[in-house]
Inverse folding.
């Protein structure tokens, strides 16, 4: 199992992604989605949005993976079709127009919502900035080769989740808390099949970190921690990360990531 991470201009390794664009909501769902908006809405498990918004979120996820990894989750797209898609993208053709030119439907069944992270007001990184971010997992399409994005990232890599965390612990790469906790969660699975099965069996976990000070260090608590107002754990892994120097660490060290 591999996981895509990219080095952003901030110096941290992040997952491919971005924001929902207006055009994502304008894609013809009947012609270019393999699932109806109502089904995509149910998968997100968010009563505060409507089916059209849920569909736009899925379209944005597929589009960002295509733009930043060169992989297009589309039904029946073979190797030559993937090369044609890459060529059209390189020419600057808008994503919706590209799908129309290829005559394909997005394969949202190959992708499932995994988690939703809502950052606190006083986040450890990028204070003053807040994000409401949804993470998806996906099975890489057969016959397609990922490519590096030369615009939004300095470099990219495909790493096993545990290998990425080991490189982080050794100081070789920088990761933010959502990446650390998500990788620790993903690393518990031995295969993509197991990962997808978990995603099918539950709604996306909603993570609202809480930032606080403890023993002279800034720290973040997650649902289930004694200091967090949400007492029910929503994901495996440590319930707390402490900022020591420039590294976020579980209280018990690296092995705490797997408890």
């Amino acid at each position: 199992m591999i996981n895509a991470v990219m080095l952003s201009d901030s110096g941290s390794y992040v997952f491919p992604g971005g924001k929902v664009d207006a055009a994502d909501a304008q894609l013809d769902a009947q012609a270019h989605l393999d699932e109806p908006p109502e089904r995509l809405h149910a998968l997100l498990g968010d009563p505060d949005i409507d089916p059209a918004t849920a569909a736009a979120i899925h379209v944005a996820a597929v589009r960002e993976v295509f733009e930043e990894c060169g992989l297009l989750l589309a039904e029946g797209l073979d190797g030559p079709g993937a090369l044609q898609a890459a060529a059209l993208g390189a020419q600057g053709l808008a994503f919706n127009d590209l799908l129309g030119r290829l005559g394909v439907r997005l394969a949202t069944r190959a992708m499932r919502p995994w988690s939703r992270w809502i950052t606190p007001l006083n986040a450890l990184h990028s204070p003053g900035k807040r994000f409401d971010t949804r993470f998806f997992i996906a099975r890489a399409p057969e016959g397609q080769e990922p490519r590096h994005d030369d615009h939004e990232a300095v470099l990219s890599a495909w790493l096993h989740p545990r290998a990425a965390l080991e490189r982080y612990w050794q100081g070789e790469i920088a990761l933010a808390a959502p990446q650390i906790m998500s990788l620790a969660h993903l690393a518990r699975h031995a295969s993509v099949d197991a990962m997808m099965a978990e995603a099918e069996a539950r709604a996306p976990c909603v993570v609202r970190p809480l930032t606080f000070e403890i023993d002279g260090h800034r720290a973040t608590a997650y649902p289930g921690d004694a200091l967090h107002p949400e007492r029910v754990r929503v994901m495996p892994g440590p319930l707390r990360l402490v900022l020591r120097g420039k590294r976020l660490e579980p209280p018990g060290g690296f092995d705490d990531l797997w408890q």
Observations:
- The first strand starts at residue 3 and ends at 7.
